[in-house]
Design a protein that fits this description.
- The chain has 176 residues and is α+β, with helices and mostly antiparallel strands.
- It has a domain at 3-110: Ribosomal protein L22/L17 (Ribosomal Protein L22, Chain A), CATH 3.90.470.
- The protein is built from 4 helices and 5 strands, in the order βαααββββα.
- Strands 1-5-2 form a 3-stranded antiparallel sheet.
- A hairpin with a 5-residue loop joins β3 and β4 (94-99).
- The radius of gyration is 29 Å and the shape is flat.
C-alpha cells in the first residue's frame, strides 16, 4: 500500500457510508473521483475529500509518484460509537435514538503501468464475446421460427367482454 487516509467520526451510519465506498473500491483514483462527484449521496463529498487526502499523502510520501497509476486498493467502513438520545413519546414514555457515526479508511496502491483509456482491447476476449452474442441470436431465431405450433389439446383462453368483469368490485363494470 502506497498511502492511506482515515476519516474518523463521520456523522452518518456505517451502512450508508458503505454504499458509497463500495462504488470506488478497486477503481483508479481519477475514475473514483468522477464516480463520487456524480453520486447522489450526502456522504459522497466527505469520501471524495478523504480520497483527495489519501492522494496528497501518497504524493507527500514519494514526490516522484504518478497519480495516474494510483488506484483504490482498500476501502472499508467501521462503525464508531453511538450517541444515545431520548425522543419523548406518548403517555410519558421515551424512545431511544441512536446517533450513529463511522470511521472510513481508504488505502491506495500503485499499478505497474498506467491503465489505458479503454479497459478491454480489441483482442481475443472481444472476439469471444462477439461469437457468444451471435450464437445467442441464432438460438433465438431458431426458437422464434419453430414456435408457431401450439401444444395439442390446449385451447386459447378468451378474455371476458368486460375486461375485469367477474372480479368483484375491482373492475367496476359488473355493478348495476
Amino acid at each position: 500500500m502506497v498511502a492511506s487516509a482515515t476519516l474518523r467520526y463521520l456523522g452518518t451510519s456505517a451502512q450508508k457510508a458503505r454504499l458509497v465506498v463500495d462504488l470506488i473500491r478497486g477503481r483508479d483514483v481519477g475514475e473514483a473521483i468522477s464516480t463520487l462527484r456524480f453520486t447522489k449521496k450526502a456522504v459522497a463529498s466527505e469520501i471524495a475529500g478523504l480520497l483527495g487526502s489519501a492522494v496528497a499523502n501518497a504524493h507527500q510520501k514519494r514526490q516522484d509518484i504518478d497519480v495516474d497509476r494510483l488506484f483504490v486498493r482498500t476501502a472499508f467502513v467501521d462503525g464508531g460509537p453511538s450517541m444515545k438520545r431520548i425522543q419523548p413519546a406518548p403517555m410519558g414514555r421515551a424512545f431511544r435514538i441512536l446517533k450513529r457515526v463511522c470511521h472510513v479508511t481508504i488505502g491506495l496502491g500503485e499499478r505497474k503501468e498506467a491503465v489505458p483509456a479503454t479497459r478491454r482491447a480489441a483482442g481475443e476476449g472481444a472476439k469471444e464475446a462477439a461469437g457468444a452474442a451471435s450464437g445467442a441470436k441464432a438460438a433465438r431465431a431458431r426458437r422464434v421460427a419453430g414456435g408457431g405450433a401450439k401444444a395439442p389439446g390446449k385451447a386459447p383462453v378468451k378474455a371476458a367482454a368486460g375486461g375485469l368483469a367477474g372480479r368483484g368490485r375491482s373492475g367496476g363494470k359488473d355493478r348495476a
